[in-house]
């Protein structure tokens, strides 16, 4: 089985699980009939079933090993990108507690250090200047609150 197939199936399953959890906030039925949660919940369940079907079908069709060869090496090579994505998700989740700029600054500094090869002082200064420009444009000029 190819790594791209596994990634597609895993991504589809995660999407369906998030949709399923989010759709529980809506009523499944209402007095008139189907509620606003009916379509997303059923779509999430069908998508999970589809992901399971694709996984079983791919396993039955695979002649060799189920997991791709050298999967560990591929995951090790993809670790920085996966960690950056995880950091972005964590930063986005922290934005719910108030400021948008503080988590964004932390994410930008880590990405600047890890991927751009900047030193610590350079990463801190460049990202502070960038966020100051973002604050000036959105909050002061366009009157869109970002804090």
Topology:
Elements: H1 3-23, E1 29-30, E2 33-34, H2 38-61, H3 71-94, H4 101-115, H5 120-141
Antiparallel strand pairs: 1-2
Helix pairs in contact: 1-2, 3-4, 4-5
Q: If you had to describe this structure to a student in words, what would you say it looks like?
A:
With about 150 residues, the chain is mainly α. It has 2 domains: about 1-70; about 70-145, no CATH class. It is about 70% helix and about 5% strand. The chain has 5 helices and 2 strands; from the N terminus they run αββαααα. The protein has a two-stranded antiparallel ribbon with strand order 1-2. The longest helix is centred in the middle third of the chain and has 24 residues, at about 40-60. The protein is flat, with a radius of gyration of 22 Å. The model has no long low-confidence stretch (mean pLDDT about 80).
Number of strands: 2
Provide the succession of SSEs: HEEHHHH
Q: Low-confidence parts lasting 5 or more residues at pLDDT below 50?
A: none
The structural class is mainly alpha
> What is the radius of gyration?
22 Å
Number of separate structural domains: 2
